[in-house]
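Lecture notes, unit on protein representations.

Consider one protein chain, 352 amino acids long.
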Amino acid sequence: MAGKEIRVGIVGALGYAGGELVRLLCVHPNVRLAYLSSEMEKSVRMSDVLPNLLGFLDAECVPYDPQAAIEASDVFFIAQHAGWAATNTRPFLEAGVKVIDFGADFRLKPAAVYEKWYGLPHESPDLLEKAVYGLPELYRAQIKEADLIANPGCYPTGAILALAPLLKERLVEPDTIIVDSKTGVSGAGRMSHKLDFHFPELNQSVKAYNVGIHRHTPEIEQELGLLAGRPTTISFTPHLIPITRGLLTTAYADLISKDWTSEELTTMFREFYRSEPFVSILNAETYPATKDTCGSNACYIGLKVDPRTGRVVVISALDNLVKGAAGQAVQNMNIVFSLDERAGLNGPGVFP
């Protein structure tokens, strides 16, 4: 399969996550961007809307046409608003096209959880059992056989990767977990026009939002609960910070045994992620910054055991548009098509 050309279709190609996907795939050695679409009323040249593509991609983004998308694609990426994928995915699967959804439509099980947190009826609840949660570090074998992949959210990716070793090894009390995350404004999407994202409102400020009610909360709890082997409730607070891209997560949890040191837990984390090409564990009591992973599919993790409180503090950093969205989607595609998992993603980030 390594030499096979994969025909890729995308809807939502002009948004921040969709545009990042196009950026990564236009230099992927096994990909032909066969169908680029949006819900705009007329065709536009990709580089006219995303000028970073000028000289790299000579293609048009066309109004979405489902039949044309199906016929052009081996795999179809959906970078759309909540509810879109649940309504539109079935014909692709029936035609044998793989689907990777950037949204939440197939992440949460059962459908009632989705309906509660997103306020929408789920149009395809029968597809939930078919969908695989697309976090390769935990579900690689299932992803390889999947037809429908639910690409994780950026906040859940940062939180789950930070906490997975601790919960899998039963080292912390699950219900003591606190997740504090800070992300750049690109996470709101390109088409958001809320006052919160207006430059004078955002600049030189940090703001908590959706405290206790953020839609990613049940996604984090679902996956942490599976790791812990029982239902898990967390406290999750997201913050908006005045940067374009980047996600920093600080997770706290009570250790069951107070005998662990930072060095010992760091060694355990490195063993847990020893085969993961995109997860790097920093030296004990060394902590990542959002700048470290900007533009890359990397997730950096550092930790400290606080003997005074009996807690462990784990800090993860990733690019919310890459490992938190488009890069993770490419990683999932590579797994599905038996390619090198790093194909199209093997470059370092951008610094400074």
